[in-house]
Amino acid sequence: MGQRIHFVVDPQGWCCMGLIIFIWLYNTIFIPKVILFPHYEEGNISVVAVLCYYFCSLFCIASLFRASVADPGKLPENPKIPITEREHWELCNKCNMMRPKRSHHCSRCGHCVRRMDHHCPWINNCVGEDNHWLFLQLCFYTQILSSYTLILDFCHYYYFLPLKKENW
């Protein structure tokens, strides 16, 4: 897995990244303030639930940054092709470089990527051989954080609020 840092200059991608970071900040500040902290003070939620929310949120944003700056498997300018594998390489008709089979040219990034899956505007990067696992981690942590937030919202409106009305 490549450890090179990779940035893409794409206005749509930067807008998508900005939107994701805004939503993440909003949820990291708003959900604890409205749901977690008041119910923690009342004794309905334990400190473990609060810490789990913040850990999920931290893992989600960390995986977003890792997936967005990781090199997706960009082919070098002058690749060294082993003699035994020359029949498995082909010429890219867009950048006129030799590339291995299953590599594709990304029109947004302007280069060929090994085992390219797609160009994701949400991470502003291609998903390829070297960052596919990081992209899957991002999807997993986003799903965990979204599910946890949905459960907290459900508990807030259908479990904790009726308890307050009965106590009044």
Blueprint of the fold:
Blueprint: H1 11-42, H2 47-69, E1 89-91, E2 98-100, E3 104-106, E4 111-113, E5 118-120, E6 125-127, H3 132-167
Organism: Chloropsis hardwickii
Subcellular location: Membrane
Keywords: Acyltransferase, Membrane, Transferase, Transmembrane, Transmembrane helix
Please, how many domains?
1
pLDDT < 50 stretches: none
| E-strand count | 6
Percentage beta strand: 5-15%
Binned, the helix content reads 40-55%
Q: What is the string of helix and strand elements? A: HHEEEEEEH
Radius of gyration: 22 Å
Number of helices: 3
Largest sheet: 2 strands, antiparallel
Q: What's the overall geometry?
A: elongated
Side by side, the strands of the main sheet go 1-2
- Name the average pLDDT: 81
Q: Which structural class is indicated by helix and strand composition?
A: mainly alpha
- Termini separation comes to 59 Å
Subcellular location: Membrane
Catalytic activity: L-cysteinyl-[protein] + hexadecanoyl-CoA = S-hexadecanoyl-L-cysteinyl-[protein] + CoA
Main location: membrane
Membrane topology: Multi-pass membrane protein
